[in-house]
Amino acid sequence: MAEADDLKSSQCGFESHSGHQIPCILASMKYEAVDPEIVQNLKRFQNFTFRNSFTVAIFRRLFELPSRPVKLPSGMKLKNHPVGNKFVRSYLPANRKTDAALVWIHGGGMVSGRVKQQDALCIEMAEEFGMAVFSLEYRLAPKYPYPAGLNDCESGFGWVIANSERFQIDPRRLVVGGDSAGAGLAVSLTLKLLDEAGDVPLGQLLKYPMLDDRTAADRSFDNKHFVWNNTSNYYGWKSYLSAEPGSDADLGFAVPARVEDLSGLPASWIGVGKIDLFFAENLAFADRLQAQGVKVSFNEYPGFPHAGELVSPDAAVSRRMVLDFKKWLAELIR
Asked: Which of 2-16, 82-96, 160-174 is least confident?
C-alpha cells in the first residue's frame, strides 16, 4: 500500500454514470515536496488527467455545475460584450483610480476553462486597483485548434483598444495577463501584435505560463506533478497544435518558447512554483527574455504546485505570490 507522503504507482478517480473511469494519476508524486500549508487541501483536490475528449467533457461539465456566485462590490458593473466568435467581460469599479487597464485570459490547458472561473480574481483586481479589467473568452481545442483561440484573444484585445475612450482608459497602458494556458496565450498575443506592428501591451502578468510544447514531449516529466501533469499537458498541446508536441511543424506564434526573437516584448512578471511542471520552461523563458533585453521579474515559490493559490488561497506561499504580482503591477502602472 502506498504511503500518504509517497504515492508511487497509485491512482485515484471516480466512475461516471456510463461506467467510464476518470483517472487522476498520482504516480511518483510526493506530498513531502509540497508546502505544508497546501498539502491537506491538495490531498482533497481532484487531479484530473486529460487523455481524450471524454475526460475533457466531464471536466467542463463539472465546472458548469451551479456554484455560489461571486458577490459584486457596491457600484461595480459587470457586463459581457459580444466580440467576434466570443465575448469580452468588463469589470468596472465604482471608484476609478487609474486609466490603466488589465486584460485577462483564463487558463485551462487550451482545452477547458471559462471567463466566469476568473470572476473572483478580476473583481478583486478591479476593486483593489480602481481599474477597468477585461476578461477574454476564446474558443477551445480540440474542436477549435490554433489559431482560433489566439485570434479570439486578438479580437478581444483590439476591441478593448477600440473602446478605450468609452471606458476612459489609456490604450497605451493596457497590461495583458493570464494563468497557465491563458498566460501562454497572453505571450502569443503580444508576439503576434509585435509582428503585425500593432498596439503592444505595457506589460505581461504571467502566472505559471504554459509556454513550451516540448515539455509535453519529454516522457521524463510524466506522472510527477500535481494539478496539471504531463499527460494532460500532452493532450492539451496536441489538441491545440493539431500536431505532435515537440515536432518540427510550423507552429507560428502558438508556442512562445519556440519563437526566437523575444526582444520587443514588454516588461514581464512570471511566477511559478518550484514543483510545478512548468518550472523549467518558465525559468528558461525568463532567462531568454533577460538575455534579449526584456525587463523580467522571475518569481519562484518552493513547495508550490500548479495553481497552488487556488488550491490553498490562505497559505503563506499563496498570499506571497499574490502580493508579489500585485506589487509589480502597482509599480508598472503608477
From this structure: 2-16
